């Protein structure tokens, strides 16, 4: 996938399928804009969808005040999103090459529009969880497809161009979108009327505009004359199982931290740090994801081994700083700084995980191997956050967050240090 990266073969979370690596034939334009214009329309649409996925993040504390549900309920709603992503990723995320990328993107956008309507019309906990599942289903089929579409639009518009530019743009739209959505939602919740309605209305309009935009963008997939038999996305573990699992461990810890900041960090800011501003809650998430996106660009010229070293240091220092603020109920600026540093480390570690896993795969099974990394990553996105929610049934959120930080740092070191051994790179 490449939900989190987009700077390597996949992207983001993303999905298991990656761009083919071949510049698509220009073929019939079958869109109403040029491939160059379509490149930017697709990138903006990608950013809007990813931004929408974090709209609820700064609003959870408002839901808690209104309905009185627990931190555990928030983690369940968050986990519902991740479940939707995983299910869709393996059932539909790889179908863009056969049914058409534009068509799959339109289906994904339609699901996000339905999700936004559900948030507005069904604001009870059951509705929130259902809306999150629907949103996850759309994200799962969109991330890899959007990445491939953006890269191919770029290569078609500029046949001699390096695909790196398209990969960077898609990666920035992907991770950057997460941060933009949380920040925009927080600002709207803070300064606009009806804070639990207005953010969804605004993004519902943006999603509708994105849908129209994709209708105008040319198709880039060369669909086969006879559609192949459907099968879910396959997952492969390469022969070097130990190294693959270490790479998976990096993906696990990276997603765990990003999951923390898109689920419980805003509740901690409003509770333990007693900052009631929803704009600040959105800023915390924005800083974390912006750092994750920019750090991947900053280290693209470094070797994977160096990326692991730099990422591990930043990840450990940043998450330890977050834990220190949690213990001392310190300054929110220090909490933001810790999130930025940890986010930068997470982005680099995920990029390195994809590079390590990709180096273990052949061209024939690279997508299946990367699918395995994304599966491990999404387990990391979900399991630790749910664990924190369960822990809050008996201990405070602050204590649960400190325990989370200690375990994730330990796991990061346990997976990164063996990969830094020279024997893995000789």
From TrEMBL:
Residues 9-28 have a biased composition (Low complexity). InterPro entries: MFS (IPR011701), MFS_dom (IPR020846), MFS_trans_sf (IPR036259), MFS_Transporters (IPR050171). It is found in: Cell membrane. Residues 37-426 form the Major facilitator superfamily (MFS) profile domain. GO terms for molecular function: transmembrane transporter activity. It comes from Cryobacterium arcticum. This is Major facilitator superfamily (MFS) profile domain-containing protein. Its main location: membrane. It is a multi-pass membrane protein. One of its GO terms (cellular component) is plasma membrane. PANTHER family: MAJOR FACILITATOR SUPERFAMILY MFS_1, RESISTANCE PROTEIN MDTM, PUTATIVE-RELATED-RELATED. It comes from the Bacteria. The lineage of its organism: Bacteria, Bacillati, Actinomycetota, Actinomycetes, Micrococcales.
């Amino acid at each position: 996938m490449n939900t989190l990266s987009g700077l390597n073969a996949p992207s983001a979370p993303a999905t298991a399928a990656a761009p083919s690596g071949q510049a698509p034939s220009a073929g019939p334009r079958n869109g109403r804009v040029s491939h160059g214009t379509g490149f930017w329309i697709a990138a903006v649409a990608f950013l809007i969808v990813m931004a929408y996925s974090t709209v609820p993040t700064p609003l959870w504390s408002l839901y808690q005040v209104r309905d009185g549900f627990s931190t555990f309920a928030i983690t369940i709603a968050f986990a519902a999103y991740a479940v939707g992503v995983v299910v869709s990723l393996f059932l539909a995320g790889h179908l863009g090459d056969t049914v058409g990328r534009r068509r799959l993107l339109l289906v994904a956008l339609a699901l996000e529009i339905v999700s936004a309507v559900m948030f507005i019309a069904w604001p009870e906990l059951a509705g929130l969880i259902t809306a999150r599942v629907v949103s996850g289903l759309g994200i799962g089929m969109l991330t890899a497809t959007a990445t491939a579409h953006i890269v191919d639009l770029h290569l078609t518009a500029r046949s001699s161009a390096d695909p790196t530019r398209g990969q960077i743009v898609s990666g920035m739209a992907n991770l950057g979108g997460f941060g933009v959505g949380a920040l925009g939602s927080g600002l709207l919740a803070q300064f606009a009327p009806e804070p639990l309605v207005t953010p969804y209305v605004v993004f519902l309009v943006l999603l509708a505009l994105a849908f129209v935009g994709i209708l105008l963008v040319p198709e880039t997939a060369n669909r086969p004359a006879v559609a192949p038999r459907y099968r879910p996305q396959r997952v492969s573990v390469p022969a070097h199982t130990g190294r693959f699992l270490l790479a998976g461990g990096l993906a696990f810890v990276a997603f765990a931290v990003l999951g923390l900041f898109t689920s419980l960090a805003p509740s901690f800011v409003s509770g333990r740090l007693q900052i009631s501003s929803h704009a600040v809650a959105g800023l915390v998430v924005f800083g974390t994801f912006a750092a994750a996106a920019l750090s991947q660009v900053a280290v693209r010229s470094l070797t994977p081994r160096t990326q692991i070293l730099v990422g591990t240091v930043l990840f450990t220092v940043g998450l330890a700083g977050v834990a220190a603020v949690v213990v001392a109920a310190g300054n929110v600026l220090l909490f933001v700084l810790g999130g930025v540093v940890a986010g930068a480390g997470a982005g680099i570690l995920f990029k390195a995980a994809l590079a390590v896993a990709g180096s273990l795969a052949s061209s024939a099974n690279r997508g299946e191997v990367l699918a395995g990394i994304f599966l491990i990553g999404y387990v990391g996105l979900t399991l630790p956050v749910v664990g924190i929610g369960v822990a809050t049934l008996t201990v405070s959120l602050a204590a649960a967050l400190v325990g989370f930080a200690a375990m994730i740092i330990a796991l990061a070191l346990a997976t990164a240090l063996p990969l830094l051994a020279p024997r893995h790179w000789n």
